[in-house]
Each structure stands twice: as structure tokens, then as C-alpha cells.
Amino acid sequence: MTNSPKIYHQIKEIQQELLPNRATKTIALVPTMGNLHEGHLELVKLAKARADIVVVSIFVNPTQFGVGEDFDSYPRTLDEDVAKLAGVGADVVFAPSIDEMYPVMPPPTQVLSGDIAKLLCGKSRPTHFDGVGIVVCKLFNIIAPNIAIFGQKDYQQLAIIKQIVRDLSYPIEIIAAPIIRADDGLALSSRNQYLTADERKIAPKLQQELQKLAEQLKDLALKTDSLQKPLTELIEVSKNNLNQAGFLVDYLEIKSPSLAPITSENVAATFQNESALVILAAAKLGRARLLDNLVVEKP
Ligand code: PAF
Prior knowledge:
The chain is α/β, with parallel strands linked by helices. It has 2 domains: 172 residues, Rossmann fold, CATH 3.40.50; 108 residues, Pantoate-beta-alanine ligase, C-terminal domain (Pantoate--beta-alanine Ligase, Chain: A,domain 2), CATH 3.30.1300.10. Helices cover 38% and strands 19% of the residues. α3 links the parallel β3 and β4. The longest helix has 17 residues. The N and C termini lie far apart (47 Å). It binds pantoate (PAF). The site of pantoate (PAF) has 10 residues, from β2 and α6.
């Protein structure tokens, strides 16, 4: 039998709840937009293992959705979420209203993350990471956690949050949680429920294509220069395979672990400069925009 977490909707009330514990207890924050799945619950389990009090925020943040995106239809399932959180021992849920979080909408104050927010997802969602930046800073200020857990599926988001913590001197340890996948390899996401039954069967191909590309990178890393294929050629083939399978590829790119551009078209030379490479992809499949990534360690 597990206890249900305490639920707070008001900033002042959750701060009063946390205040007496600050000096003696470790507080972890797991920020979410709700509609929780096994991936979120793994974040909570990680938090439980590292902290005395686990706070889960559930807030569908309007500032990170662009015009025409799925803010209105994003699934809101607070009761089910709270029941799932009870099962993994979360202590406190913070589920504020939009007015509570943003007394003035859109908020005139901004948190901008510079060039890193303009790459990858930032190209097709130019205001997305500004919205993530402000909401995450607000959650950090309200909860003042010692640690915060974010999933590695949102690789670029994680890199931006680490940058914000560094640049704004938040005394918060950021923990990256591994991607949780369905048995067929599809990375878990609340947006997977937008997939039709036929699309759901196609969806794991995204991960399979990243795996194939990773194998090719490892293989080429060990080959002599004369056998090298340019990276751009490998990427083009993967993109075509995905587009032919029914995806509309937004991007498929290979970056350094810090998301810096890689310095050579030659895989072996690239691995001489980097300890690992990251393959990152976003692709639309029907209504769903799927994100995935794979870190390829130097062979
Ligand atoms: O990753 C998410 O679910 C959201 O971007 C976050 C970090 C909760 C901010 O709204």
C-alpha cells in the first residue's frame, strides 16, 4: 500500500510545505507536463534513490508550444498521473494553473539560451526552448531543489538546462536519466498516443535507423581513409530510408556530445577528436513528432 502524494496548486503553499525540510532533507524535482508513462516513472524512481523528498511538477507549459502546435490537444490526465505517482512513492505533486505560473501572459521576462537553442529542434520550433527556459527557471526558483532529473530523450533540452544551471548559478545537480523504450525500441513519449495503429508499427524504424547508422559509424571509425564514406552521404541514406517508410524527417544530424558541430566529414578523423558522437533525429509520423537519439561511443 503506497501513500498518495500531496498535491499543491499554489506556489506559496508548496513553498510552505517544503520550507521546514530545507535544512535537513534533500529535495529532488522531476519536471513533467503530465500524462505520465513508464519513462517519467523511471525519473521518479531515480529521484527517490537520491533524495528524501521527491516533488513532481505537472504543468502543460503554454510558452513552449508554437502557433499551430498541440497545446490544446496535449493530454491532461492529472488523476491518473497522481495514482501512478503514488505507485512509485512520489511525495509531492505541484500542478499549478497557467495564471499561477504566468500572471502576465506571454511573460515579458525571457530566458534565452543562445545558439544551442537554434540548432536541431530549434530550427523548426524557434520559440520552444525560450519557453522551456523560463518554465524550468521558474520551477527551480519555486521548488529550489537540490537535484533535478531530466530524460536524455530530450537531449537538446538537457544540454540547454545544464547551460542555464551553469550560467545562472543554480545550486542544483542535474541528473540525466536514460531513454526508456517500448519492447520494440520506440522511445516512450506522451505524444506516441497520437500514432494510429499502422503508424505505431512503423514508429520503431526511427530507432532502428539510428542503430544502423551507429553501426556504420563504428565500422568506419576503424577503417583506413580510402574506405571512408562522407558523413553526409550516410545521413542522406538514413533520411531517405525513413522518408520512404512514411516519416517526414525534420532533422537527422550527428554532433559531438556537447552538440558542437563535428569537425570532419571523415568518421575516423572525427572519432580521433571526440570520445563519442550523438546521432539525433526528429521526424513526423502522422500527427506525432517523434524524437530520438543515440550516443555512439568511440570503438
Ligand atoms: O520535458 C518536458 O516534459 C518539458 O519540456 C519540461 C521540462 C517539463 C518543461 O515544461
